[in-house]
Amino acid sequence: MVNYLKLGYSSELGYETAFDETLLETNRTHNFYVDWGKIFSNLDVYQNEINILNSLINSSDVESDFRKIILEYPTVISLLPSILAIREKNISVLDEYEMKCFKLSCSKRSPSNVDEIVDFSKKTGLLNLFNNISDLKSYLVGVEVGLDTNARKNRSGHIFEKLVGDLLKEKIKNYPNLTLYAEETLDFERTKRLDFVIHKNGCLNFYLNVIFIQTVEVNR
Questions:
Q1: How many CB atoms lie within 10 A of CB 49?
Q2: Is the model more confident about 188 or about 82?
């Protein structure tokens, strides 16, 4: 039960009205949608490999040319998971009731399992991709954007924490007996993560956890 009188409201209805007026429709800032910096940073690491594999586009014999490339430039193997839109470098595949594991990590030595890698790339449709795109980097930008959507939930939480943190800092300026501490500055033992802690006159007084709930979730 909220003590609306202590908060400066003459009635519960007045408090509820003021509360409703402060609700945000969304906490999504411009940085919520896509982390472009991370995307292009991920691709810059493989710029040479991307350029090499680009030579397969519209090849008359993709499989043969791909085999030659991985023998001469084995580092391109580490880019294959990204082309398949996965982060793992060790990939397990059930192939006709047989479990196979492929290590697609970076190596400067020619792989001993060339046939397996070529077969894997053929069966996953990776080789056929080069007959259907005009530029591998453009394709990978799209892949990275898709993978980045999985990080939106975390970004949303961090964005809202910052928004609330900035608001608390501004409000606490008016109360010299209060001190705000963010999660990363807390050093006492606890079993649950705390977003903010407020000390009053040097003593621990308030624990705060923030979460943004969409209007749709509230109305369920």
A1: 20
A2: 82
Query: What's the CA gap between 155 and 119, in Å, rounded?
Result: 38
Residue pair 107/74 in contact (Cβ under 8 Å)? The answer is yes
Q: Are 144 and 43 in contact (CB under 8 A)?
A: yes
DSSP the chain: ---TTTTT-SSHHHHHHHHHHH--S----TTSS--HHHHHHHHHTTHHHHHHHGGGTT-TTHHHHHHHHHHH-GGGGGGHHHHTT---SEEEEEETTEEEEEE----SSPPTTHHHHHHHHHHTTHHHHTTT-S-HHHHHHHHHHHHHGGGHHHHHHHHHHHHHHHHHHHHHTT-TTEEEEEGGG--S--SS--SEEEEETTEEEEEE------HHHHT-
The CA-to-CA distance between both ends of the chain, in Å, stands at: 22
How far apart are alpha carbons 195 and 217 in whole angstroms? 22
Give the tens place of pLDDT for each residue, 154-211: 787 788 888 888 888 898 888 888 888 876 555 555 556 778 888 888 887 788 888 8
- pLDDT mean over 58-69: 96
